[in-house]
Batch of 2 targets.
Target 1
Amino acid sequence: MREQRRCGGGRPSVRWSRWIAAFLEMALVAGIAGCGGAGSKQVKYPVRAVTLVVPYAPGGSSDLSARPVADAMKEILGQPMVVVNKPGGGGSVGAAEVAAGKNDGYTLLNASIGPITIVPYTTQVSYNYESFEPIAQLTDIPLALAVSKNSKFQTLKDFVEYAKANPGAIKYGHPGAGNIQHITMERFCQSVGIKVTQVPYEGANPAVAALLGGHVDATVTGTQEITGQYKSGEIRVLGVTSASRVDMLPDVPTFKEQGYDLVAGVWYGVLAPKGTPKEIVDKLADAFKKACQDSKVLEAWKKLYLTPAYLGPEEFAQRIKKDAATNQKVVESIGLSKK
Amino acid sequence: MVNVLTGLGAVVTPSALLWNLIGVVIGIVFGALPGLTATQAVAIFTPLTFVMPFTISMSFLLGIYCGGYYGGAITAILLRTPGAPGNAATCMDGYPMAQKGQAGKALAIAVMASWLGGELSALALMVGAPALSLIALRFGPPEYFAIGLLGLVCVAGISEGNILKGVAGGLAGMLLATIGMDPISGRPRFTLGIQGLMAGVALIPALVGLFAITEVLAKAEQMELGKKDQLITEYDIALPTKREWWESRWTLLKGTIIGVIVGVLPGTGPTIASWMSYQEAKRSSKHPELFGTGITEGVMATEVANNAVTGGALIPLLTLGVPGDSVTAVLLGSLMIQGLTPGPLLIRNNPALVSQLFWILIIANAFMLAIGLGAARAFPQILRIPMRILLPIICVLCIVGSYAVNNSLFDVWMVVLIGFVGFVASKFGFQVAPIVLGFILGPIIEPNFRRALITSGGSPLVFVTRPFSLGILILAGLLLAFILYRQRSGGVAGEAVKEPDMA
């Protein structure tokens, strides 16, 4: 199915190709004439399908959150937006490819916080956050610190005090070394001066399973990963890292409420390669803003427990810069930075 | 009981049945094409189910799931090209059967065994879900390490002749699997600074390279040496006899149990299940030397196990919200799209859910059986194609397939390289199967070994003080002793019988 899309239609016969050539020529002439006449303000964009690279495998949060957006964008832009999955290297393979791609607005990255603001500091990759033009942040999912229902920790304070009294005794699972969950937890531990033992798992599901099975004392994941287990009472959530409480976990206090200054989250957003013309960036940002208000998109996100959080190009760029600086510091302090 | 029947009523509607059938067909096609798997099919079609009601969406996706775990057997048997990783072990006896002119029979056995495994695992889901989900919870890092080690013992079991070469191949496979991101430290290792290796050597290109490309090169060599183009024009489409089924009853039962349990365990899947089942069938057989030469029991063992994973892998998804294999990981998203949050509450809040899924699986497997038996008559025709035409087609399939996995040209080069290395290795008497098994088990053994030591504060006692871990390790030891004893007494192993030192 994906192949067909890329190949376009069938192969045109000789006669057809002449027609197409003639048509293209006309279009070119018209284009040049247009440039001369009305000034270069009016860029015709998009005139063909826009590719949205998802740097993870199909079926994950990144993929499922992007697909309804791509559908909505088709209606808004009048051109299809094609989702292409380029998984690998914790999102860095797809990110590197887009960073090196053409900055004509036809190749975009469905980025997330990890590959953009952490991976460039931990791993030798060919890009950093400055290789991109931020277009729009779409969603923002807070993290949760969860413990088993039988845990001795009732509140975040219990957790911190126990960790202070018993350095390294608490073992917490997270979805992978150098992931935002890991980095954020380490950042929290540094800020309150505690030491805990981290146990990396391969993805959020195994980390949650380890918590349910009692193989770790706590797990740090995105809130959407533990909502089901929380509602059934199998686990207790000590705190969420959002600025205010989360709709799906209304009884869970934030870190801030409990007196700890930690606000963090996993964002998903769209980036274009550096140097993409400002008109195109603005046009896309407007279109994504509309897509973020589309009822189908909102419904899909709600079901996936993703929190809509649109940010325009400037605000998004500021956030990325801030996140990158914070994460770089943590990465260096825990010895994860690249040589 | 009433629940079970109302579940049936909900899923036997014309549209649900139709979507189930469509799903099975899509699943078989995705399964059969190398590089496209059931996981990808479910992922690609999940966005389509945004607009479907629950029973239709699940009929469609579970149809893909069941068909996808069987479809790969078709190409594994006919072309020695595993369409999906879970069917790689089927190459072992399925392909030799086809070469003996029994392609139709091998395909029929594959689908019938798949059907049996699928149906029995659906039954396990229906009656045993709560109990079996406890197993998933008891498995921590030490237990995963132990089960990986148990699988590695199979390397010794499936090494023909020279155990030492088998162990060397297994270790080479494990080393190959260490390339990429270190799963514990999150840092790249052995990537030589090559960006494409950051994600490691992908499973499908490795399997396709080792099985298919190696075989294509071997066949091309035979043609070059002037051996006659072996056209298989006669083929047996006789179904296996009742007696053959009866003689294999324990293999089928054990394969189902292995498949269900491996399915229940998160992080493992049909690939491991089919190899373990194959090894166990060979170990307990009265004529182990016939395995690999094209016997029905070899195909039954692998295909019953990989499809038995389906029901098993749904168990932790439905009871704990933790998927049991890669397809159910995608199904987790599909359930959320339906507004259902997988987790312990799922069944409590939707008591009819399990019985509906049970019936959907029963029906999907029946569709799969019908289509598969038809395919068993039609597809052996492929073997009538002369080698000089068929071989290039296989190459194209492999290359397109390995590109399609990650849309990565790098993977295409990996297929070519691994295929060539595999061919050279086979010239020196190193077999493909142990390399593959090491490659699959390495990523279970290594990280869990390290994770277990992290959680125990560095004490290796953690492996022997936990009952499950200790039990599995003892089992692995006994199995190893049994294999070595038989090799020695049978005199097959020759001079190089050594205890593989891999604990």
Note: Residues 24 and 257 of chain B are 23 Å apart (CA to CA).
Target 2
Amino acid sequence: MPQLKSIKALEDLRNKLNKDKDPQKPCIALCAGTGCIALGAHKLVETFKKELKQRKLDRKVDLLVTGCHGFCERGVIVVVRPEGIMYQRVQENDVSEIIETTIMKNEIIERLLYEDLSTGEKIIFEKDIPFYKHQQRLVFGNNSRISPVSIEDYIAIGGYTALAKVLSGMDPDEIIEIINKSGLRGRGGGGFPTGRKWQSCRDAEGETKYVIINADEGDPGAYMDRSLLEGNPHSVLEGLIIGAYTIGSHEGYIYVRQEYPLALKHFTIALEQAREYGLLGNNIMGSGFNFDVKVNRGGGAFVCGESTALMASLEGKVGEPRSKHVHTVEKGLRDNPTTLNNVETWANVPLIINNGWEWFTGIGTERSKGTKIFSLVGKVNNSGLVEVPMGVSLRKIIYDIGGGIIGNKPFKAVQTGGPSGGVVPASLLDLPVDFERLTEAGSMMGSGGMIVMDENNCMVDIAKYFVNFLKDESCGKCTSCREGLIQMYEILNDITEGRGREGDIELLEDLSWILDETSLCALGSSASNPVKSSLLYFRDEYETHIRDKKCPAKVCKALITYTIDQEACTGCTLCLRQCPNNAISGEVKKPHQIDQGKCIKCGICFDVCKFNAIIVE
Amino acid sequence: MKNNDQRIGVFVCHCGSNIAATVDVKKVVEEIKNYPGVEHCENYVYMCSEPGQQLIREKIREKNLNGIVVAACSPTLHELTFRRACEAEGVNPFRFESANIREHCSWVHHDISSATSKAVKIVQTIIEKVKQNEKLTPISIPVTRKALVIGGGIAGIQASLDIANSGYEVILVEKESSIGGHMIQLSETFPTLDCSQCILTPKMVEAGHHNNIKLYSYSEVEDVSGYVGNFKVKIKKKPRYVDYEKCTGCGDCMTHCPVHYKPHIQPKPEYSKQIEPRLKKEVDQILKNYLPAQEGSQDKEMLVLILQDINLKYNYLPEQALKYVSERLSVSLPQIYHVATFYTAFSLTPRGDHLIRVCTGTACHTRGALKILDEFQRQLEIKPGETTPDNKFTLETVACLGCCALAPVAVIDDDYFMMTPKKVGELLKKYSKI
């Protein structure tokens, strides 16, 4: 492919690509995001190829291997186009049936369809499935339409038009004004206005300036950035190039978490293709603008998602944050002005340029504009990635899109914002989700993790989990964070192991205050949020642990015992055989016993029992 | 006093529930009763109360005791109380000792049986001490009202100033040629980031000019003898070979000195000559991809990337390779280790053939990741971060793999698995054959 030497060349290429494409040609779109790969997507691709070839259909039917569709719970997802029929939980032995029945005879395979959880109705088309129907997939939607390793796919659906528009003579100040007016705010957690960040960086003194994609998605329970990079890397890159042009930068970086090998691979391929097509390098599309991007892998440190720590890591140093009396937009990487934005933020930029700020401000709430991708996980029926306009209620996300709680149990709380966020209880289920309202509720938007919890999740345990995580991830530079988190963990651990004392809650509150006030970076100053918010809404649960030495959710091992209901037990011996510590005894067809001295409280017997005969107290 | 003359009374205090809740006081009495030299032993709720003290006095009279141990709180609280009680009955107060089974035992432990046996040991130790105690008579001696402060860091300077400002004479001894210590070498102090010189220099000047402070810099304390209030101290003033009454501190002598004094500099070891040739060749291959660094960046910025590649190749960071990289990048070895131990991606010990990573992200945690981890630990008999003795498996945890919808998840090498505790055994069986 010759380089695209002008903006017209890009348009010509797009027209040619679309002309060659028959919209009525059958296409099997198969999700091969990390979730579906774990469920065997690679084997499925091979089988489809083989079976299509056997039937001499490989030229008549397109096989499109895409990135993540978001509905990971139901993987592997296969969509048959142009009709848009969606099959879920597809396995290898379903392949020939899909080809023979749906492709060749145009008939539906009932058993592979999605079944509505409340009505039991089978749904044929992707667009009708509640999980998709209630979403507004502006940023994420193209994932299922293109192959992530094909720049031509991206160009064909209108990719790089925003870049072309910018390079065809837009003034950087004009771009900044558009971004400012759009109200776009950082999607990584802080919610800082993107336009203002760009403006400061553009105004900062210095010849060399940098732009960076923050793909060190460290919040446990959040994976939207990974799926975007895996499924649509060019959209992120396009945003980055526009940002670089606006700020006046000629060198960009991407900092990808080492746990995301596929994202790294797809983005690296995207870079190579963009260079090949002349969308990176010198004189991009004949505009005279030069820009290129380097790839850096993270080293597995949560704190490196923090801007100054990330930049230290890019400089080959230990990822320790510094105090930010001088902002990174003035002195960032190698002490040069640097703009760092999250993956999702960059991916929003081309949309705004293409559609205008007026369009963007039409979506969302007063101060939070546009959409946000959330990773809806935990005890929810439809786990996956959901993109909704800002301001949609938690109820809509969890019940309409997520299909409610697994096993129809009562909803207890949702944890948002990762380790720096907090829990939002059932009483706030109608809370509109945007930056401000979540902060008011004692949590935060964060990068968009939503971990749904039911009555079997213990709030003290969850707080302990996050404090333990942060304790391990604290870089150790400042005392309050390093030592404070260890002490908080010890107290929480004592509470969950039945050694809680009166005054522990007050001590936790004191420590929280110290951490908030004296930590050097946001990791420390927000580290107490999980504790504070769970204390705010679930103080009684802490008190029950401390005073009655009981765990209401029956999670904290030291506070529960497993016994066998002598009436319900049928003596099937299943638990006896599964018990890892041989703590269960009994004869066949007679009620079994648990030796409390030997029981390690692993809960396996509870999980395997088919007769609900294991009692937890 | 001979052993068979010892008639010691031991009194074990409950201190309400402060001691009795954690230490089995009755058991302590049982254990101590027949200890050599013990004439009498009993327990009581509050030894420091008036009835408690009366109890001691009664027993002294009754059993003609000549040594007393009260097992209770810290001596700082009630040593005096009990000494007075002893004295009132004619027992020399210095034949009394407190055995601290509260602050040193009951308050800091949870387990009753081990706390009790520790309390017994504490009491026995103190009984042995009482056996050695001689009858003492207090005397009064004159005291020299002068203080010696050793070390002129911030603590020493402040202590000297406090004492001097209270009107006493202070002798401040500092081994270096200037006071100031470590703090004066820092640029900022934690956590307020105040300038350390701004805090310290006024104090240094004040200490240097204070009428009550006699400063001996470049001096060391050689010998201390005497006793409380009457110490004799020998201070060695190290030779300066400079008449510092006349010295203006111009520094010219330093530039003209024919023998350059270079402290702390040792010749650098040549790691490139110590490294195995094969390893060197392979590391060189990796270095070639990054060095020399492109314009605008420095060689040492490539450190993390280079270590990642080495770690990828060997599954860990061999020591020789780290030393060699340190030399090639001109980054000090401590700095290299700082980076190598900071990032969890790096390992300093070889990993096994298969790397098992169990996701402990929030979604996996809520869906039972710990059960999966427990099961891996149990079957492999190793903890996270360890490798099996046959070098087959390494077990690690990872904060989040981003497959939250499939929770709980584990990754073996590069393959992702939706887990159940039962699946652990199947997977281990499968992979142990590969």
Note: Chain A touches chain B through 69 residues (CB under 8 Å).
